[in-house]
Structure formats: C-alpha cells, structure tokens
Amino acid sequence: MVKYTKATSKGFTLIEILIVIMTVAVFGTITTEMLANASKIYSSSIKRQNLINEARSTFFKIIREASWQKSFSSFAGSNNKKLVIRPADGNSISYEIRQTNDIIQSNDQITGANNKIITNKVEYSNSSIAYKNSSGSTIDIENQISDIKSLELTIKFNQESQNLLFRGEITPYNLRIGRAMSYHE
C-alpha cells in the first residue's frame, strides 16, 4: 500500500503577509491621528491654563492691593484706566491699563519696581476701573473723589482666540468704616 504524505508549508503566504501589513498600516494611521489630536488638545489646554493663571494672578493682586487704600483722598491721580493706591505707610502703588494692551505697575515701596509690565494679555477697550458712591452708582473721580466708597475692576484678558472676563468690586477696609473725624487725624 502506498502512503501519501501531506505537504505542509512552514511560512506565510503572500496574501497573509499583505493582510498583516495593511492591518498594521491602518492601525498605525489611526493611532498617529489620535496622538496628533491629543497633542493639539493638550497644547491648547496648557495655553488656556497659562492664560487663566496669569489673569487670576494679575486680577487678584490688584484687588488685594486696592483693599489697602487708606482714604478716599488717596485715590487722587486715578481715572477709569489707572488706579493709584496709597496704603497707610505713605508709599504708592499704581496700576495702569494701557492702550498697548498691557497693565503696568509702579511701586514706590520696592526699589526698581516701577513701570513693570505685569501682563500683556489685556483688551484695552473692554477693561476699566469704575469708582462708586455709597448707593453703588458710578461717579466721576475727579469731581466727586470724596464720595468714593468702592471701586469696580473689569479686566478682559485675551490670548489668541481665548478670552476671559474678570469683574470684581472692592470696598477698601478703611472706606467701609467711614470718614475719619478730625480728632482721629
């Protein structure tokens, strides 16, 4: 009796190799696109987070230092784009929103701290400082400086296509108490 042996191959056929190569190519392309999109999203979120951090830092620094204001007369020299702060120690700190879309700080308390740009991501036309009287109405600081009870700070930050609007009202501690009587000064 004659026995037939079955021939077996110990490799892949050309079709099998091509199918594997095509599958790897498709999955590689999908993975590459996913990684590219993820890196774009990550980059965008990092830029957004940097804008948020800079905006918060700037805004809350101005609010904190505005709360140090000693009296309504200490606002002399301020306007709707500039805030002059004269704390109890007699020095002055000023913040100015400039048309160059930045905020500049001058600080007499620290040597070399004058005209320092603290942010350059401000939208000039949508940022302002409003001074308010005891009823909450906006007043003209030059003519009604003695009526100031609080101030409202509005700053719009922007970077590329990302915008943040911060608005806060500050009532400096000494203005909450009221005017000092002549025997206190």
Quick overview of this protein structure:
The chain is α+β, with helices and mostly antiparallel strands. The protein has two helices and eight strands; from the N terminus they run αββββββββα. The strands form two sheets. Strands 1-2-3-4 form a four-stranded antiparallel beta sheet, with helices on one face. Strands 6-5-7-8 form a four-stranded antiparallel beta sheet, covered by helices on one side.
Describe the protein's topology.
Blueprint: H1 14-66, E1 82-85, E2 93-98, E3 102-107, E4 116-119, E5 128-132, E6 138-139, E7 150-159, E8 162-170, H2 173-177
Antiparallel strand pairs: 1-2, 2-3, 3-4, 5-6, 5-7, 7-8
Fill in the keyword field for this structure.
single chain; 185 residues; alpha+beta; four-stranded antiparallel sheet; 31% helix; 25% strand; rod-shaped; transmembrane; N_methyl_site
Rg, alpha carbons = 32 Å
Structural domain count: 1
Distance between the termini: 129 Å
What is the count of β-strands? 8
Spatial order of the strands forming the largest sheet: 1-2-3-4
Q: Please state the structural category.
A: alpha+beta
Uncertain runs: none
Number of helices: 2
Strand content: 15-25%
Largest sheet: 4 strands, antiparallel
Estimated helix fraction: 25-40%
How are helices and strands ordered from N to C?
A: HEEEEEEEEH
Q: What would you call the shape?
A: rod-shaped
